Amino acid sequence: MQLYITGTPLGNLEDMTYRAVETLKTVDIILCEDTRTTRKLTTHFGIDTPLRAYHDFNKEEAEDRIIEEMHDGRTFALVSDAGMPVISDPGFELVARMQDEGLEYVVIPSASAFTMALVASGIPSYEFTYFGFLPKTGGKRKKKLKEIMAHELTSVLYESPHKIKDTVAMIRDVDENRMVSISREITKKFEQHVRRPAAEMLDLLGVDIPLKGEFVIVIEGAEAEAVHFDIPVAEHVEALIKEGLTPKQAIKKVAGARELKKQDVYDEFHETKK
């Protein structure tokens, strides 16, 4: 194998697996987001493998060198600062490049914060959508969250401590009774999971829920009959297309949900495309 996509602990080092430790000891180079963070992990487990930075700001130029060295027989482990690599972190580009070039890789598992938060949320988890981080700018953030709030399935997203109150406030503004679970400091000393309606959750932030650590938000799905009804028909169709439906499927679904004729929905949707 040329690459071991290696999961590491979210916070508690006792969650490190024997297989992960052995892998990091035997590869030639460990690729990591922040060498300072990974150094703490490798020092704790007596791992002296060289570290090399691989992150959003250098990944394109770094990949050429990595691929070249793999062809020469060098082996690598890819880690993130915590949890599973590639999830909301760089890495899928490298995996795709390796597939194209016939290079071998394997995944060594660990927990991801979003799966643990979902398990601990008390919100239906049979079907869910993971959205990662919201866009950074205000307009795009609100648009994306509005789309998420119209989603029929349970939604999971990450948020930073300085934006968590703003995000929950936006959730409340859309539906103050929507059930929300917030998880923070997962696997660490002050791990916390709280489930409340959005309006109550906002009151707890900064009081019973400290604004420290990384947050995971789990949002109950919208009721089917209420989905998208607060937006125009054309936007309703567009939102369903973004969720993976074809235009024909989306038009049919919108027509059924709103008790409209399919031709009327079709005409209104395509009028906005002119």
TrEMBL record:
Q: Which CDD domains match?
A: RsmI
* Pfam families, sorted: TP_methylase (PF00590)
Kindly list the places in or outside the cell where this protein is found, as annotated in its UniProt entry. Cytoplasm
User: Sorted alphabetically, which PROSITE patterns does this protein's record hold?
Assistant: RSMI
Source domain of life: Bacteria
**Which Gene Ontology BP annotations are present?**
methylation
Q: Does the keyword rRNA processing apply?
A: yes
Which keywords does UniProt give here?
Answer: Cytoplasm, Methyltransferase, rRNA processing, S-adenosyl-L-methionine, Transferase
Q: Give the catalytic activity.
A: cytidine(1402) in 16S rRNA + S-adenosyl-L-methionine = 2'-O-methylcytidine(1402) in 16S rRNA + S-adenosyl-L-homocysteine + H(+)
Molecular functions per Gene Ontology: methyltransferase activity
**Chief location bin:** cytoplasm
Keyword match Phosphoprotein: no
Entry's family note: Belongs to the methyltransferase superfamily. RsmI family.
Biological role stated in the UniProt entry: Catalyzes the 2'-O-methylation of the ribose of cytidine 1402 (C1402) in 16S rRNA.
Please identify the protein, giving its name as recorded.
Answer: Ribosomal RNA small subunit methyltransferase I
